[in-house]
Amino acid sequence: MRLSLIAAASVLAMTATAPAAAQSDPVRSATAKELPSLMALYRDLHANPELSLGEVKTAAKLAAEAKKAGYTVTEKVGGNGVVAVMKNGDGPVILIRADMDGLPVTEETGLPFASTVRGKTPEDVETGIMHACAHDTHMAAWVGTLRNLAAMKDKWKGTVVMVAQPAEENSAGALAMLKDGLYTRFPKPNYAIAFHNSAALPAGVIGIRPGPTFASVDSVDITVKGMGGHGAYPATTKDPIVLGARIVSALQTLVAREIDPLDSAVVTVGSFQGGTRHNIIPEQALLLLTVRAYTPEVRQALLDGIERIAKGEAVAAGAPEPIVKVRDPFTPPTVSTDAYAAQLRTLFTARFGQDRVRDVPPTMAGEDFGRYVIADPTIQSVIYWVGGVPQDKWDAAQANGGKGLPSLHSSKWAPDAEKVIATASEAMTAAALDVLKR
Fold first, then answer.
1. Angle subtended by helix axes 338-352 and 417-436, to nearest 10
2. Measuring CA to CA, how many Å separate 233 from each of 224, 225, 227?
3. Within 10 A of 253 (CB to CB), how many other CB atoms are there?
4. Residue 16 above 70 pLDDT?
5. Which InterPro entries match (predicted)?
6. DSSP string spanning 210-233?
C-alpha cells in the first residue's frame, strides 16, 4: 500500500507542469495504475542483471509478462530475443524495442537492491555485473507499454510488435534478431520506436532530435610488433612501447587534420597494453581503439587512416608490420526520421508540456537500434531520451557548473527509476496510439 501511494504521488508531481487536459488522460491513469508493479519488476531486474548474449532469465521474465498480457510470444529469436505480437484489426504496424543486457561493472550505487551478481566476460575475466546503462528501466517501461496497449484495444487498430532485444552493449543483438527473421517471421513494421534513459537530463524530461542521434562505433585492435630484449640495451631491440606511443600520437591527427571540421569524429585509444617488467622490452604491445562517426564516408576514412598510420610508423621505426583488426560486428549510426521526430516532439509537448520536452544534440555514443531501419529504410523510426538524473542531484550539479554527475556505464549511475519508467511508459503508449489511432 505504501509503495502505491509513493508511486502515485510521484506521477502526480510530474503532472504539475503538464497541460490540464492531459492530467485526466487515460494513458496517464493507466500508467500510474501499473507503476507499483513495474517498480517491483524494475528492482528485480536491477538486482539480477545478465551480460550480453546471456540474458536467459531476463528474457523469460519479459516473455512471461507479455504472455500474461495476451500477446502471442516467440522466444529465442536471434539468441535470447523475445518478440510479442498483438494484432487488433487492419492498420499500421509499430515495433517497440527495449534492450535487456547488463554490463561488466561492479555496482557502487548503494541502492538497497543493488546487484551483487558476478560473472565472466567473453575474455574470461571475472567481474561484477550491473545495469549500469539502466536497461532495467527500459524493460520495465516496455512492460508498462505492452500492458497499457493490451488494456486499451478499443482505442487502436493495427499491430504492435514488442521486441525485447539481447546484446545491445556489444552491438550483436539487433543484427542477430534481423538475421533470425524478425521482418519475415513477424509483421514488418511501418514505424519503430525506442527510448534510452539519460544521465544528462533531469528525471522525467524527454530529449528528442531529428536526424543523427547516435554515432557508428568500431572497435579496432592494433598489435604493435617489435623485437624484445633487455631494457639496458635498447639499441639491440625494436621497442614496441615507443612505436605504440608514436602511433597513439599520430592518430590524433586523423580528426584534427584529415576530417572536415564540420564532420563529427572520434578516435580514442582506450587501452595500451605491453610489457611485464621494468627492465624488459617486450616483443609486442596492444592498442585498443574506439572509433566513432555519423556517416559511412567519415567512418571509412578513419579506419583507412588508422591502418595507414600504424603501418607507416612501423616502417619509420624499422619494425615489423603491425596487425590492424577491425572487430565485427560494428555499430551503425542511429538516425531518427526527421518528420516522425517532429511529429513525436509535437505529441510529447502537448502531453507533458514544454518544460519537459527538449531539443538535444547528437551524441557520439553508440546504439544498435539503427539497424532496424538500415534493414528497411522505408520504416519511420525515432529513438528519444528520457532523463533520469534525480532532481536534487541535478540542482546540485547545476550549481557546480554541471559537474559531478555520474554518466551512463558508471558504477554509480542510479536514475530516478520511477520518473523514467512512468514517463517512458506514458510516452511510448501515447506514441503507439498516435500511429494506430482509430
1. 120
2. 20, 18, 12
3. 13
4. no
5. Amidohydrolase, Bact_exopeptidase_dim_dom, Peptidase_M20, Peptidase_M20_dimer
6. SEEEE-EEEEEEEEEE-B-EETT-
Other residues' Cβ atoms within 10 Å of the Cβ of residue 17 = 12
Domain 216-326 adopts which CATH fold? Alpha-Beta Plaits (3.30.70)
3-class SS letters over 172-191: CHHHHHHHCCCCCCCCCCCE
165-193 mean pLDDT: 97
Q: Regarding the domain delimited by 2-214+333-436, which CATH topology (the fold level of the hierarchy) does it fall under? A: Aminopeptidase (3.40.630)
Q: Do domains 2-214+333-436 and 216-326 have the same CATH topology?
A: no
Q: Where are the domains of the chain?
A: 2-214+333-436, 216-326
Neighbours of 260 (CB within 10 A): 10
Phi, psi for 203 (deg, rounded to 5): -55, 135
**Closest to 226 in 3D by CA, of 262, 269, 279, 280:** 280
Amino acid identity of 104? P
What CA dihedral angle connects 309, 312, 318 and 321, to 10 degrees? 80
Which residues make up each annotated binding site?
A: 133, 135, 169, 196, 409
- What residues are designated binding site for Mn(2+)? 133, 135, 169, 196, 409
Give the whole-angstrom CA distance, residue 70 versus residue 147. Answer: 9
At 326, list the grid cell.
577491425
pLDDT for res 424? 98
Residue at grid coordinates 621494468: 278
DSSP string, 326-385: E-SSPBPPEEE-HHHHHHHHHHHHHHH-GGGEEE----S---GGGHHHHT-TTSEEEEEE
For 21, residues 6+ apart whose C-beta sits below 8 A from its C-beta are none
pLDDT digits (tens, 9 = 90+) for 265-305: 999 999 999 999 999 999 999 999 999 999 999 999 999 99
pLDDT given at position 14: 55
Burial class (CB in 10 A: 0-12, 13-18, 19+), 366: buried
Calpha distance 310→324 (Å, rounded): 8
Say what angle helices 135-151 and 26-47 make with each other, to 10 degrees: 140
- Contact yes or no for 204/354 (Cβ under 8 A): no
User: CB-based burial of residue 59 (10 Å sphere; 0-12 exposed, 13-18 middle, 19+ buried)?
Assistant: buried
Report the chain's mean pLDDT, rounded to a whole number.
Answer: 94
